[in-house]
Amino acid sequence: MSEFSDGTTQVIDTKGEYRAGEIHFGSERVQGWQLDDLTDPFHRTVFLYMVYASDPDQYVYELINVSDDGQRRTRMTQFLKNGRNSRRTLIDKDLASRDWSKF
User: Fold this and answer.
1) Do 33 and 20 form a contact (C-beta atoms < 8 A)?
2) Which is nearest to 61 in space by CA: 28, 42, 34, 27?
């Protein structure tokens, strides 16, 4: 759920299923898949792909890496439109708690 400065909220409900070694997911907004990098001997890397339902020429590739201790995660995301990069995002995350009920 996202809350905006004007007080409105946005909830995106995405469903997924495991098929042929991949997680496939979708909502009214996006369709995509997630795949572990099987060439990573440390099992730290995941690939993510999404395409927008409203605009199939707009899609996203994301590379997610998790630290060995599971406390940190980095995300490198590229947003493409008609095969051209329209935006890149780099995100560093630190685990706040494993107890989600606190949030």
Assistant:
1) no
2) 34
Report how far residue 17's alpha carbon sits from residue 15's, in angstroms, rounded to the nearest whole number: 7
Place of tokens 């400065």: 5
Beta strands in the chain (DSSP E): 2-3, 9-10, 15-19, 22-26, 30-36, 45-52, 55-66, 72-81, 84-94
What would the two tokens of residue 74 be? 């980095």
User: Where does residue 3 rank: exposed (0-12), middle (13-18), buried (19+ CB within 10 A)?
Assistant: exposed
- DSSP category for residue 39: T
pLDDT tens per residue across span 24-51: 999 989 999 999 998 999 999 999 999 9
- Evaluate if pTM is beyond 0.85: no
Report the alpha-carbon distance of residue 69 to residue 95 in Å, rounded.
10
